[in-house]
Amino acid sequence: MGYWPVNERIILCKFEAKSFNIVIMQVHAPTSDYSDEEIEAFYEDVSKTLKQAKSSDVVIVMGDFNAKVGNTAMSKSIGRYGLGTSNERGERMIQFCEQHDVSVINTHFKQPKRRLYTWTSPGDVTQNQIDYLAINSRFKNAVSKCKTYPGADIGSDHAPVIMKINVKLKIPRRKSTKAAKYDVSQLKNEELQRKS
Fold first, then answer.
1. CB of 104 within 8 A of CB of 91?
2. All domains of the chain, ordered by start, with CATH?
3. Euclidean distance between the first and final Cα of the chain, in Å?
4. What is the SS3 assignment for 49?
5. Buried-exposed string 177-188: b where 16+ CB fall within 10 A, e elsewhere
6. pLDDT tens digits, residue range 152-174?
7. Model pTM?
8. For residue 63, what are the CA distances in angstroms to 60, 68, 123, 134, 184?
9. Closest Cα partner for 132 from 62, 83, 81?
10. Which of 15, 146, 156, 182 is spaced 20 to 30 A from 131 at the CA atom?
């Protein structure tokens, strides 16, 4: 349906789909080297961009958040299966997720550590989970799988994070209205035919 490059850190794409349109926002948050003001400006831009999505849309916010949300489910947005402990930038991301009612999906699936870390430092010294897939909580249960694929030949120090989602619709149940019954035997009644 279209795409909107907001700035060098945010792009939004909207796809037409049956029943629900899909809105995907790719982000690249500033690193911890940036000031708190620049981080706040980033999240403000993301919030403004999210307003382009309708409440009925499947909304996926994904990318490099440069934050660690950890493995402690501090809110309904974060699962128990993240990697490590959260940091200050992770707490800001959690606040954003709660504000917009989105769930960080790759913290909701139990995986071995190698399926959790998304970034490896030069020399394989450090491995962190800083890339996330978040979906509006309404569709959280539609996600059946989410994991990282380390070792993918993509020419990056980040590993791809893959999510499988199946959106099923509930069939609306209508109140049954009984059809009116007519006494068709009266059509043969000659007296009634003469009166009409």
1. no
2. 2-195 (3.60.10.10)
3. 60
4. helix
5. eeeeeeeeeeee
6. 888 888 999 999 998 765 556 66
7. 0.80
8. 10, 13, 23, 9, 68
9. 62
10. 15
